[in-house]
Structures are given as C-alpha cells and as structure tokens.
Structure prediction request, 583 residues.
Amino acid sequence: MDGRMVGSLVWLVFAGVLGSCASAPRSSPLPAEGTGGSGSVMSELSGREREVFYHLPQGNEHLWLAVLRALPSRDTQQGRTAGFQSFLEGFERFGFLPDPDHPERLPVGVALVPATERQPVARVGINCAACHVGEFHHRGARVRVDGAPSLLNMDAFNREAVEVIALTLSDRTRLLDFLERLATHLPPQTREGGLQAAYPDTNLTPDGSSSAREKLVAEVAWYCSQGADLCRPPKLGPEPERGLEFDAQLSLYVRELSRKQVRTVPDAIRLLRGHLLYFMRLGRLRFGTYAGPGRVDAFGVARGVLFGPEAAGVLAAPVSYPCLWEFQKSSWLHWDGNTNSVMERNIGQALGMGATVDRRDFSSSVLPRNLAELERLSNKIGSPRWPQDVFGPLETARLERGREHFARHCQSCHGAEDAVVPLERIGTDGNRAQSFASKVGDLEFPAALQDLLSRVKQRAYAREGLTPEEIHPLEPRIVYWRAPVGYVSRPLEGIWATAPYLHNGSVPTLWDLLQPASARPARFPMGQREYDPGKVGYVTESSDPSLFTFDVSMPGNSNAGHEYGTGLSEEEKRDLLEYLKSL
Prediction:
C-alpha cells in the first residue's frame, strides 16, 4: 500500500476520541500487598517488578507531563470544583487505578520518560498495564488483580482532553492562565524564576511600564494575530485535503515540537495545539458504537487509520480487554485467535497507544526490548485464586456437584486449547470476527496488517541491535495472521476476575450467562468496581447517572449466543458457579 494514502506518520490508536462522557468512580489508594483481606494485591510479581510492569515505557510517550498538569479538568472548566483541579488529578474518573508508590504519583499504566540532558522535559504515555490490571470492591474491601481486565475508558479520557484543550485555546483568558501554570511545571530550573525563566527568549521581565502578566497578554495577542488558526483548534473534516493538512500538522508536532524545549510563549502555544492534534487524531473515523469502560474497537480503528476512513466504514465492533494469564497456555492470541506472534501483537499494542511509524522506511518509536520485558513480566502473572476472605468461602459440596456439571456442559469446549468455535455454532455477536475478516479493496486485512507489523518489527530490532538469541524466545518459527471468523474457547482459570463476559463484554455476570439470551440484562451500568460474589461479576444496580450504560441493542453489543447450561435448574447453576469460582 502506498504510504502517501495516510501521510508519512501512521497513528494506530486503538481507542476512540468521540466516546461517551461516562466515567469510572474514584477508587481508594493501592491496597496492601497480600493474597486477600480488606486491601490486597493478587500477583506473582515482586514490588519492584510490579512498578516496572505498571510504568515501563513502550515508545508512545509523546505527552508532556507539564502540559497535563497545567491543563484544567473538565470539572474545573465548568466550575464544579473548588479551586483548580489539574487534568492529571483524579485520573480514576477514566478508570485508571492509583499507584501511590510512584514518585510522580502517576496511575497504573501511565509510563514516564524522565527529563534528560538531551530531552529536557518529562513525557508520558500509556502502557499495557492500563488495560490489564483490575480491581474489585466488596463491602469496603478491595482486591487488585494484576493481569485482570481493567475498566479503563479511553473514550472518556480522549474526549475530555479534546474538550479542555480546545476550550483553553479558544478562550484568551484561559490560555493566559494555562501559560502561567505551565511556567511552574516546566523543568525545575524555571520554577523559581517566574515567567521570564520559563520563556527565556520572550521578554517578560517586569519594568516600569508593564508587569510580567501584561507583557504576557501583549505577546499572546501579537502571536495570535499573525495567523487565523495559530490560536484556534485545528480544523478536521471529511475532505481529503483537510485530512492531509491535519496529518502534516500532526507529523510536525511529533517530529519537531515534542522534542524541543519551550523557549518562547509561541513555543508553548504551539505545544498546546500539538497536544490537541494528538488527541484529535481519530476524529475522521465514524464510531457507531461507543466502547465505554473496559472495551476497545482495536482492529476497526487500525483498518481505518491504515486504509482511510472510507475503507473503515462505521466502527461497531468493540471488545473487552482480555486477561493476561490465558495467553500463557494459548498459541493463538486475541479473541478470535488471529495471530501467533507475541511480539507483533505487542508492537501493535504500542502503536495502538500512540507510538509512531514512518511508512516510508517503517522506522518507529516502539521499544522492542521494553516490550519483551513487559512480556516476561506478564508471563509471571498466574490466574488468581478466589479471595475467600473477601468474597466468602467456597462451598465444598456445591463445588463438587458443579464439577460434574462443568464436565457435562463446558469441558468439551473449554478443556481444549486454542479451539476456534465458528460463529454459526457459538451464536455470539459476529461484528468483531467479521470485521477482522473483511477486505480492504483487494487486500485481506490480516495480510496487510502482518506486512506492516513485520516491517516495523524488523526495523525496530535492527535499531536496538537485538541478537538472534534475544529474538528467538519471543517469536514462533513462522508468524501467522489469519481471520478464522469465530472465537477461541479459552481455559477458564481465574474466570471470576474477568467480568463482564463474552468477547464483547455484553453479559455482566456468570449467573446472567447461564440464562437464556432473552433473559439476560438488556441494559446495565458499567464503570463501577463493586463486585457481586453470588452472581460472579460486577454489580448491575446503580443510581449513579455518570456511569456508562451498556445497551445490547447497539451494533456489536449483542448478548446472544453461548446458551450452554441454560437448561440447568437454579440450584444446578449455583453449583456450577461455585466450581467456576474455584478455577
């Protein structure tokens, strides 16, 4: 495919900008380490390994920490907070989990590249832990499970960022306030020197006629008068020429501005506008179904970014984040078993969270050694045991009866590894599998995706000097990407920690999954962490209007299919659930 179709930089960001306004509730500090109790972490990782897993960069760190701290939250802009709340504060509203042990207090899954002599500003991005660390609450107790799917809502994160940056750029008073706050968050040597130290190449030193603020006002007015769009949000529309212009501006931000130190007030305004470009990069795609907390339409977005909005059509195939421990026993990855390459999957994930690739030579910003280390740590995470001291003890008699029901109704599929169950047999929503299998012109999407990821991988290996001995454990002898048009039946170890259920998260609890599809909840709230041990899944009753409402009538959200065990009596179903808890 000609790289000019999408500009020199391809952005494979697997989360939507135009998402819902729903937010996850704020969670309390990191539980104490242990295997259960009022606050516990279930993980095979040591404390040091966990910090690496939570925060190791993977190559997508383009956002300035100083900018995120100087930006207001939506609540601040709308006057709902007492005083100033930074966009970076209260990250739990987006489904991130706190990590009070991090020196910068960044949440789980936010990676930090510290300031260096060559790169004088700290930058942040999102790594795999953001999607693969879960936490469950019950009667005031909390259990954090490394490797479990999270409730991260990238829709809400991107949407709020677009809103607050666009309003900051559009309103002169807000822009001036931002520039003053940014001055206090730039490299440490500027914090004591005020505006002049922060913007050394702009004359902001107070004199007999003007204060520093007055000079800042004049400088902003001068710069914004030099061009109609310099202090306005970028224009984004369906026209091809508008798209090319947007790509060019985004490339400029990534190639130049994100690597420069701020020296002038215009530098800072361009920096802010560059961040808005970054967050708006999916604005040309059409989303028919919002993902909400804990889900993403990964490959739909990839197809649209790689081949253009027209080829993508309307995106309506969001899926849940999977747990990590199941991949240790599986040769085929993702919900539909579409690849056997761990590293190409991980490179795609890094690209998916904002790493860049130049289509002219396939050079990229991905960090394969870090991705390999994240994979090594992921492989240490085993399936969690049911936390009996939090959720209640298992009933031995029920468990044993449930074992027999499992053998009769579930074992044939979930005992076999890597078995792809065809859509016509499983009967679940087919959007995800069919979307990946669709063609783009005359090209098969799996083949086109494999070609790109393979080239990016080889170039990244060469850049970092990976040896064959390092590469060999990371890759199968022959890499496959395929579209089997079905879903893989996985082993069910740790299934209690993987709610909601089915590939698209359309069934909130295991109890609901054992009901006929017609009796399963048609609408339920998502984003809260309160757990229901009896039904095995998230609580589905809430009066919180801010929570995302999952609607099974939306495209890609069907809760049909997988009607196995639905004919059991209520007591037999409870026996089966007890056994599933024990796995």
Observations:
- The two ends are 46 Å apart (CA to CA).
- Residues 445-464 form the longest helix (20 residues).
- The chain has 22 helices and 20 strands.
